[in-house]
Task: inverse folding
């Protein structure tokens, strides 16, 4: 089985390069299952129904979110009906939406879930480790894929090692910067600390540089306008799993600049 994970798609440049690259990778690599982080797809902040459907039209199987999940208020209008959309599992109970999704694919049950890290995140969150333990116990599946949305590299690595051999693939998102550490852990889990973002390359993690530089120079608040000029980047991870053993047989870190 050939799977592709794509990191935080940011605004218009992100959507454009995503559409081009997904088409190309489906043709060239025979990608069968696609998971995309869409927390920045609507003007850099959150997701709306229009862009959720845009992702489905690109043959995306599962859309994940993150700390920006509820930044665009349109989400409250469609999240309960969005079957292919997940937000962090460790948001407190009562928060709309689902933290995991189980799909039947080629006779296999695949559970995709997202958790959010608690280091450097100013959001009320339950423990990602304990909730994942509960999920693995209560939701029986052939394969488990996790989008760990977090800032701290240590927290992501601790999570991946703790669930090594139990969660098949753990991909980090959120920092918008791709890490050079994709590897198969000792008990078989595929892990990368961060996929990186998909969108502007010449901005600062997706945003126009001038405002962010001014913020650092003056301490004044800055508007986070998406960078819409210059080059684009597409970042993700391609993984091939053996259909019988469920082991990773091949992987490739994807980093394309246009
Ligand atoms: Fe993001
Ligand atoms: Fe984020």
Result:
């Amino acid at each position: 089985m050939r799977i592709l994970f794509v990191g935080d798609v940011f605004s218009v440049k992100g959507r454009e390069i995503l559409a081009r690259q997904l088409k190309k990778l489906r043709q060239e690599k025979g990608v069968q299952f696609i998971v995309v982080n869409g927390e920045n797809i609507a003007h850099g902040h959150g997701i709306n129904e229009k862009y959720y459907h845009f992702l489905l039209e690109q043959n995306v199987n599962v859309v994940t979110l993150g700390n920006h999940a509820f930044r665009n208020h349109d989400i409250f209008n469609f999240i309960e009906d969005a079957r292919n959309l997940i937000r962090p599992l460790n948001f407190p109970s009562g928060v709309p939406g689902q933290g995991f999704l189980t799909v039947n694919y080629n006779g296999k049950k695949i559970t995709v879930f997202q958790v959010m890290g608690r280091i450097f995140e100013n959001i009320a969150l339950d423990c990602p480790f304990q909730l994942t333990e509960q999920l693995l116990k209560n939701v029986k599946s052939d394969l488990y894929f996790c989008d760990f949305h977090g800032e701290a590299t240590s927290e992501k690595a601790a999570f991946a090692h703790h669930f090594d051999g139990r969660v098949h693939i753990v991909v980090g998102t959120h920092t918008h910067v791709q890490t050079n550490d994709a590897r198969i852990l000792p008990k078989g889990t595929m892990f990368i600390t961060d996929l990186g973002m998909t969108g502007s390359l010449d901005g600062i993690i997706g945003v126009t540089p001038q405002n962010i530089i001014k913020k650092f120079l003056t301490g004044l608040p800055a508007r986070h306008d998406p960078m819409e000029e210059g080059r684009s980047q597409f970042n993700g991870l391609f993984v091939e799993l053996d259909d019988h053993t469920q082991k990773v047989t091949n992987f490739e870190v994807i980093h394309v600049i246009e």
Q: What stands out?
A: The mean pLDDT is 97. Residues 8, 39-40, 66, 174, 176 surround fe (ii) ion (ligand 1) (CB under 6 Å). The domain at 2-257 is CATH 3.60.21.10 (Purple Acid Phosphatase; chain A, domain 2). Residues 207 and 225 are 5 Å apart (CA to CA).
